[in-house]
Design brief:
mainly alpha; 157 residues; 7 helices
Length: 157
């Protein structure tokens, strides 16, 4: 039988992926933006986010199971909920509002929430903290892409 933490973590990852996908229309506006040479092909983003969110779900379940008391479990919930909030904000800013400049400001908070996850999870479960590192690396790269798009296309109105 699958444990409740695994179900909650998997459900959260699926929800984040689905909402993120729905908030990321790849239409003419995006296609016409100038992008840096290191921009990955559009088809790569879906599989990358699937792997990253899967690892994050695994991390959440592992940290929950490793937590020794209610205070540690509450820390796990707060860390992941904070990250989920910042994860959900980026795509609507960039794609729906067409404000890569605002998304660039927001990505600092998303990146910081990932650093907080690694640091906060480490005493609870070093394994769970390490599972977040690919997410942190991808968001670091995505932040650079976001910056490059702003630099190549500004101003936005």
């Amino acid at each position: 039988m699958i444990s409740t933490p695994v179900l909650v973590a998997a459900g959260g990852a699926i929800a984040l992926g689905a909402v993120g996908g729905l908030m990321t229309p790849i239409g003419p506006w995006y296609a016409n933006l100038r992008k840096p040479r290191l921009q990955p092909p559009n088809w790569l983003f879906g599989p990358a986010w699937t792997v990253i969110l899967g690892l994050a779900a695994w991390s959440a379940a592992a940290a929950w199971e490793a937590a020794v008391d209610d205070a540690a479990r509450m820390s796990v919930v707060i860390l992941f909920a904070t990250n989920a909030l910042f994860h959900l904000l980026w795509s609507p800013l960039f794609f729906k509002l067409r404000r890569p400049d605002w998304a660039l400001i927001e990505v600092v908070f998303l990146w910081s929430s990932l650093v907080a996850l690694v640091v906060g999870l480490w005493p609870i479960s070093p394994f769970a903290a390490k599972l977040i590192l690919p997410y942190l690396a991808w968001v670091s790269f995505a932040a650079w892409l976001n910056w490059a798009i702003v630099r190549l296309n500004a101003p936005f109105r």
